[in-house]
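Page 37, continued from 36.
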């Protein structure tokens, strides 16, 4: 991993803020220009050897016992980091509480935690020198500008230097506990840096300490952190599709914690598109495959003029085409009612269009007038 890059010390940063001047730009960033570089809080000192030792003692000796005293915390799947060894990874998680970052860091294996940083909102955690310095020292946070414009080059530089990144793609804490739309920053970094992504499902943090609270509720509520297998972008997969896949895996991990691995996997397979491998066509709305004997019997019935399911379906489709009407299509899903063509176009559940509707809902931003950025998309 090597020696961390030298940045601007706390004394210089505090002096610049105290005098009312512009923030000091770290060494080597003066030529980059742009609004993001000029506003970036210096955190290179928080990744030095002394700061890492202090942070390890704080997380292991203070924060972890405090969390276990206030919560009933459990972590599962930490062995997934054995498959990536020393390769830097991006850790993405749902974000419902201020407990998410401490829980994630305390749940990581020690060798992974020592080289992991957490991306944090620059306008919230780094609005003052002492708040930014405290969060950088305690949790190895680095500022990310959420206001748009040119993205910071710090996350990419950290990945190249061998550091792991914890990113909350929602950008902010959930207001009601439900997962919000994932932004494109994590997938953008993973594709351009060529690193795997470890999805994480955090369940129970919102009930333990929702927005507006500065301390967990009484009664030691249960909180679970569940790590998933590392994911990489498939060849030809764009940022939006990969972001939707990450969001779906985070949801699956939360469902797995609430039910079981089998139920979560079955629910995930039921939402696969019709053209996906593994026989997901039945879940997407196709009728089940008939045995050979039944197909032969249907052919005999149709040849003698008897009733046939295939013949009736073909007749209904032919009549609909002849009359120019949008009639419901029979036999869409066993045990469910027919799905109309308009419902298919809207992306109703159990239809082939549902996959693209999920991708759109997971990644499409709301209209705004600011410039586009991978961190606010």
């Amino acid at each position: 991993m090597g020696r961390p890059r030298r940045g601007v010390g706390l004394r210089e940063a505090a002096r610049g803020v105290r005098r009312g001047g512009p923030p000091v730009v770290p060494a080597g960033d003066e030529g980059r220009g742009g609004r993001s570089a000029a506003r970036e809080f210096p955190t290179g000192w928080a990744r030095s050897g002394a700061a890492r030792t202090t942070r390890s003692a704080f997380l292991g000796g203070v924060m972890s016992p405090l969390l276990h005293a206030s919560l009933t915390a459990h972590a599962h799947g930490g062995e997934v980091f054995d498959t990536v060894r020393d390769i830097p990874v991006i850790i993405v998680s749902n974000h419902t509480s201020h407990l998410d970052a401490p829980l994630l860091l305390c749940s990581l294996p020690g060798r992974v935690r020592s080289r992991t940083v957490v991306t944090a909102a620059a306008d919230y955690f780094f609005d003052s020198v002492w708040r930014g310095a405290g969060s950088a020292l305690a949790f190895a946070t680095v500022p990310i500008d959420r206001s748009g414009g040119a993205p910071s080059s710090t996350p990419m530089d950290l990945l190249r230097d061998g550091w792991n990144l914890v990113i909350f793609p929602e950008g902010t804490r959930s207001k009601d506990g439900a997962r919000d739309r994932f932004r494109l920053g994590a997938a953008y970094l993973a594709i351009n840096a060529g690193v795997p992504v470890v999805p994480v499902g955090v369940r129970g943090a919102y009930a333990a300490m929702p927005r507006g609270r500065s301390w967990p509720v009484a009664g030691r509520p249960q909180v679970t952190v569940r790590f998933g297998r590392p994911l990489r972008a498939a060849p030809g997969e764009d940022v939006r599709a990969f972001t939707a896949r990450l969001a779906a895996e985070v949801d699956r991990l939360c469902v797995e914690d609430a039910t079981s691995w089998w139920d979560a996997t079955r629910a995930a397979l039921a939402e696969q598109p019709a053209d996906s491998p593994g026989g997901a066509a039945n879940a997407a709305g196709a009728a089940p495959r008939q045995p050979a004997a039944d197909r032969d019997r249907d052919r005999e019935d149709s040849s003698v003029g008897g009733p046939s399911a295939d013949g009736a379906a073909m007749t209904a489709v032919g009549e609909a085409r002849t009359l120019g009407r949008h009639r419901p299509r029979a036999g869409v899903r066993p045990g469910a009612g027919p799905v109309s063509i308009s419902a298919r176009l809207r992306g109703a559940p159990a239809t082939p269009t549902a996959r693209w509707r999920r991708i759109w809902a997971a990644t499409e931003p709301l209209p705004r007038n600011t410039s586009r950025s991978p961190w606010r998309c």
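The first strand starts at residue 72 and ends at 76. Flag for discussion at group meeting. Residues 163 and 364 are 29 Å apart (CA to CA).
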